[in-house]
Design a protein that fits this description.
Largest sheet: 3 strands, antiparallel
Helix content: 40-55%
Strand order of the largest sheet: 1-2-12
Strand content: 25-35%
Order of helices and strands: HHEEHHHEEHEEEEHEEEHE
Distance between the termini: 84 Å
Structural class: alpha+beta
Shape: globular
Length: about 325
């Protein structure tokens, strides 16, 4: 009869080699496997976290842009409504946008050895990515307020807007105070002016030239600009333009006023360039809405003319703005 010459240690090794499913039983093995799993989990979370961070940064860029645009549209609409009720406008200029980002990765593991074939290893991990954006606003005051709102719009800006594709009819209706054609008399855009009829005829010639592609802004040798309408030429300096404040004030005269607030302001004008509705509840079809004195004022998404007017005022506000003046800074978390 042969005897087994294997030692107990060699038997154990052989048994583990041939039975892959046999549970591990020593504290050292538990610690080693736990460490490997934990390190692997950390690397896995960090790797996937990088992808999350990249996607979040791309999404944040779009979100920040949308937040600033929406807030500026609402600000412009609110100031138009304020002017309708004879209140002074107040503009805040977005000065800076900062965002801080934080990554946090944590992982843990535990092992429990029990009698028999049961050995438990638990691994947990968490990954956190957070962003904290902040927008700093500066009130538009002093010289910057005068430059942006009270000064007459320069003729060069009028020509710039024409070159950018704005219809000459809209620019004349909203921005022009008067014009003196070459060799002619001053023509006023004011409806009650004796020369208003001739002014409308002059604008009609510009619109007709634009319709056939014969309206252009050209630079003169002396650095000034001429407006050429087919065979006619007029220096842009002959246009007297309104201030942005004046243009906004006149456009705001057509804003609807609730019956209960009619004695808060004057009667509405008949301008068609801007229609702002007043409703008791927010309108679901609005591109922009603000609340004022318990009522909701909005511009409908399908009101193209009013949307264009709002966009023109926004563009002029940016063109007329200068460097932010020193003053109090209002810092508002974007979320």
């Amino acid at each position: 009869m042969q005897t087994n010459k294997h030692t107990p240690a060699s038997t154990a090794r052989a048994a583990r080699f041939t039975r892959h499913a046999r549970p591990i039983t020593t504290a050292t093995q538990f610690a080693a496997i736990t460490l490997v799993l934990t390190v692997g989990l950390i690397f896995g979370l960090a790797s996937s976290g990088c992808q999350v961070a990249k996607q979040t940064l791309r999404a944040d860029f779009t979100d920040f842009n949308t937040i600033i645009q929406r807030s500026q549209n609402e600000q412009m609409l609110l100031n138009l409504v304020r002017m309708r009720f004879r209140e002074a406008p107040l503009f805040l200029q977005a000065g800076s946008l900062t965002a801080s980002y934080e990554n946090t990765v944590s992982a843990g593991a535990d092992a429990t050895a029990q009698q028999g074939d049961q050995s438990l290893i638990g691994v947990t991990g968490t990954y956190t990515f957070s962003s904290k954006p902040t927008i700093a606003y500066t009130p538009v005051e002093g010289q910057q307020y005068v430059q942006q709102l009270m000064n007459e719009i320069p003729p060069s800006h009028f020509g710039m807007l024409l070159r950018a594709g704005w219809p000459v009819q809209k620019l004349c209706d909203l921005l022009v105070e008067s014009v003196t054609p070459t060799g002619g008399e001053l023509l006023s855009a004011r409806p009650k002016s004796p020369s208003n009829h001739e002014y409308k005829e002059f604008v009609a010639t510009l619109v007709a030239a634009e319709a056939v592609g014969q309206l252009a802004v050209v630079k003169r040798a002396d650095g000034g600009f001429d407006l050429k309408a087919e065979s006619k030429t007029i220096a842009l300096e002959n246009f007297r333009l309104r201030s942005l404040f004046s243009a906004m004030f006149e456009a705001a005269e057509s804003i609807e006023v609730p019956e209960s607030q009619r004695d808060w302001t004057t009667a509405a004008s008949t301008s068609n360039e801007l229609r702002i509705r007043a409703t008791a509840k927010p309108s679901i079809d609005a591109i922009v809405t603000v609340e004022y004195a318990g009522w909701y004022y909005s511009i409908a998404n399908d009101d193209i003319r009013s949307k264009d007017t709002l966009a023109l005022f926004m563009q002029l506000c940016r063109i007329q703005s200068g460097a932010p003046a020193p003053g109090p800074v209002l810092t508002i978390p974007a979320r």
